[in-house]
Amino acid sequence: MVLTMILIPVLMIVISTPCFAALKIKLGVVTKPGSAQNIVAEKFKALIEERSSSKIKVKVFHSASLGNETEILQQLQMGTIEMGVITGGPFDTFDPIVRVVNYPFLFKDNDQADAILDGPLGREIFNSLESSGFKGLCFSENGFRNLTNNRRPVKTPEDIKGLKIRVMASALHKTIWQSLGANPTPMPWPIYTELEQGVIDGQENPLWVMEVYKFYEIQRYMTLTRHVYSPHLDVASLKWWNTLSKANQALIQTAMADAARFQRRDNREKDAARLVLLAQKGMEIETQPDINAFRAKVAALKDMELYQNPKVHDLLIRMIQATR
Fold first, then answer.
1. Of 12, 39, 67, 277, which alpha carbon lies 20 to 30 A from 29's?
2. Domains, the chain, ranges and CATH?
3. Residue-wise pLDDT tens digits, 141-174
4. How far apart are CA 154 and CA 236, in angstroms?
5. Is 50 exceeded by the pLDDT of residue 51?
6. What is the 3-state secondary structure (H, E, C) of 116-182?
7. Phi, psi torsion values for 175, nearest 5 degrees
8. Global pTM?
């Protein structure tokens, strides 16, 4: 009887402990070490390997070694790689639902972006992506995007007219800059050489990009437009995901969510110092552009063809209502 009483609790512990199968995960990003995508990818690698007692191993393929973001998404669809940390823009050629997140001047601040994207409306986006072969895990961030150029200061939309601005491979981002009077030029990452040689006049990205990629060396003017909040979609191949045990799925989901929260906090804590650094490096920073004028120029986008898919339009309207 005593032996039975001792064995039963031990057996219960063994049975209730999750069994993590050995896995090797290839995770693709297009940016170099130290960049926002890489920070969340490396944090995820550290967390998942620790929590699985190294049964799950992650190899981060950085600096576009697996191709550009569209090519990484195609590989995820096929199941030839397992995971990716991808900017929102390139998704809209696979599922237009992602255009909702990139709608200009949608979010007031970081807290609002987190509340919406981590809630039911953000989950709707990930649920929709499953029809294209992606398992959405969580949102980390690129951040609020700002304009830089090497031709003139920009305070109003009129100052943008004719500027050749690099944009992501995204119909929405191209339309945003057309509405503002620029000449948008889709171009894969990286773009330092094109900026340096004057192939393009400028680009738009969060502050960390200006620092990590040293755009202060080749871009004189920056305007804090904060025109789009740019998340990263941390995704897995649905084809691969469906082969995993429930225990492995739960572990991966939790580790990526923790990594995303870590990266968002880290990115935001560094932004004030980045502004100081960029000014010290010689960039002329317009901190108070005429945001109302910019917003007015793009207000009609919600009624354009880009958002006329009923599912997309419905979610956009609900997203706008949730942020007002």
1. 277
2. 24-142+230-270 (3.40.190.170), 146-227+276-308 (3.40.190.170)
3. 999 999 999 999 999 999 999 999 999 888 889 9
4. 39
5. yes
6. HHCCHHHHHHHHHHHHHCEEEEEEEEEEECEEEECCCCCCCHHHHCCCEEEECCCHHHHHHHHHCCC
7. -70, -40
8. 0.86
